[in-house]
Write a structure and sequence with these properties.
Number of strands: 7
Helix content: 10-25%
Structural class: alpha+beta
Strand content: 25-35%
Strand order of the largest sheet: 2-1-5-6-7-4-3
Shape: globular
Number of domains: 1
Distance between the termini: 56 Å
Number of helices: 6
Length: 214
Amino acid sequence: MTTFPGAPRLLKGGLVLVDPDSGTVRRAIVLQYNPTTLTRTLQVQSAGENADRSQALRLSGPPVETYRLEAEIDAADQLEFPDQHRTTVEHGIFPQLAALETMVYPESSRLQANNDLANAGTLEILPVEAPLTLFVWSKQRVVPVRVTDFSITEEAFDPTLNPLRARVTLGFRVLNVNDLGFEHAGGNLYMTYHKQLERLAGLNPFARAADLGF
């Protein structure tokens, strides 16, 4: 099927896993279909209700921002051309689901290494550090996040019980400079996002005090 030549290029949303030390990209996960709804919640970080009245307008930091979305994964298009999509024929959408699921799994090699250290008598073993996860939703919204909620509903299967269609619900908490610090690569990305919001706010065409009677 050809695309109308005048149609705008469709950008996909997705996730990028970045090595926290080197900054190299470990994996990119592109959502097969862009979700039709993205729910965002901002929890204001004020000085607190018990603060002195002189502190009533003070903010202790950026808001705690959370995202929630539901993504669909479907093998139907690939199965129309089985010769071109042997992986889908053999495994269904298991690879796509696994790419998402392993975001919240520590690497098996690191688990084995920590077990070996424990058996060798090491007194303190640090928890495994996960890659830095970036949620990418347009050029204006590239933010470091932590996965807080993850559920999968598998809806169709092939004769060998490989899943063929699923809905994935994902919840994220944006990690800001209070979480990561200004020197961290993720903190730097957050500040870029923060400044982008301020720039876009300055472009708001409906921002005249005169319209309010002032």
